[in-house]
Amino acid sequence: MDKALSGFRILDMTHVQAGPTASQLLAWLGADVIKLEPPTGDVTRGQLRDIPDADSLYFTMLNCNKRSITVNLKNAMGKEVLTDLIKKCDVLMENFGPGVLDRLGFSWEKVQQINPRIVMASIKGFGSTGPYADFKAYENVAQAMGGSMSTTGFPDGPPLVTGAQIGDSGTGLHLAIGILAALHHRNRTGRGQYVEVAMMDGVMNLCRVKFRDHQRLQRGPLPEYSVPTQGLAATPRAGNDSGGGQLGNAIKCKPGGPNDYLYVVVQEAVWEALAHRVGGEALAKDPRFATIGERRKNQAEMWRILNDFASQYTKWELMKIFNELDVPCGPVMSTEDLMNDEHVRLREMIVELDHPQRGKWYNVGMPIKLSNSPVEIKRSPLLGEHTDEILTEVLGYSQDHINSLREAGAFSKQPAKVPEYHEPRVD
């Protein structure tokens, strides 16, 4: 079946999480993603292993629908293979440290010379320019420096990282958008371009509403916050406040376990019905809660009343009660809840796959649903599983040529038997 990105070929040199998130998404959309790995493989194949000698879930959950080729880029003939792959691909993705590809002889200028139509997409911690350009970054470093940690948690506690991987996976999503835009532009102009996303920049974009509130502080306190904001110079941590125009918070339900909470948004339109259900006519007519402005002033008391009511019900029972009133709400769902949820399975957001090393396992599904391009999720590749296939089908190499490259160390860790290095061919 023809897919949304059928016909596009992506050379994926990224590793760990941010880049593989982007390339997996593009592979699910139908692009032919060739994962180029060193002979030792993507480092995550062996990280956080739960089954000895099998690719870890860290790797398998980020590399579905890809083909794997191993190439030794420290070998002259390995560089020849990379050069030929660049000629045949629409996109080259990388997330090496600053200057690594340049030292290998594959700067953006050289890549563009090899294939003027190619899009080169890079993920960096802090970008290729600026005083932080040479700093190393990880997921939580990006959260710390992008504004997320300083605004997550409670005012009387330390800054916290989020459970969602906004520094890595969030950056990968930004890169996928940039790649698609660059391909669209290439198809109009015939020229590729360089796309860069910095993890710090991506986190800042996802913290956009916090910068909204930062500027509002210059003109007075933020009434929707449950913590004092008068005189603050920076957006504070505000626990589970909604952060929007309507009040919201998590209320505790029975039996009182760590995830026995329901998140509730008290919209203006639903307050009267909600108040009647929780506290009868007395609460519905209470002047302290008559308008959203009054509820903001007295939200501590409002949440106390709602928490008292919630203590009589489980989160699922309370969700049913509030949904009947059209109150926006949702239970705090654990990973166990989600893995066994009927709605999640129906939406194919938990998908069972089979792996030759691991056996049966589960991956998170494709969140983007296209009516005419349904996604079929396939397992991640074994290390170098498609090396010969790619060399013959994509590059048109003969078996004799492949054998000579293999003997020269182009695909292995072994010392090269062809020591001389010459500049990548541009013809």
TrEMBL record:
Keywords: Transferase. The keyword Transferase applies. One of its GO terms (biological process) is oxalate catabolic process. It catalyses: formyl-CoA + oxalate = oxalyl-CoA + formate. The active site is at D168. The keyword Ribonucleoprotein does not apply. CoA binds at residues 15-18, 95-97, 103, 136-139, 267-269. Its EC number is 2.8.3.16. It holds the Pfam family CoA_transf_3. Substrate binds at G244, G245, Q246. Pathway: Metabolic intermediate degradation; oxalate degradation; CO(2) and formate from oxalate: step 1/2. Gene3D superfamilies: Crotonobetainyl-coa:carnitine coa-transferase, domain 1, formyl-coa transferase, domain 3. It is an enzyme of class 2 (transferase). One of its GO terms (molecular function) is formyl-CoA transferase activity. InterPro entries: CoA-transferase_III_domain, CoA-Trfase_fam_III, CoA-Trfase_III_dom3_sf, CoA-Trfase_III_dom_1_sf, Formyl_CoA_transfer. Involved in the catabolism of oxalate and in the adapatation to low pH via the induction of the oxalate-dependent acid tolerance response (ATR). Catalyzes the transfer of the CoA moiety from formyl-CoA to oxalate. Homodimer. Belongs to the CoA-transferase III family. Frc subfamily. NCBIfam families: oxalate_frc, PRK05398.1. This is Formyl-CoA:oxalate CoA-transferase. It comes from Pelomicrobium methylotrophicum. The gene is frc.
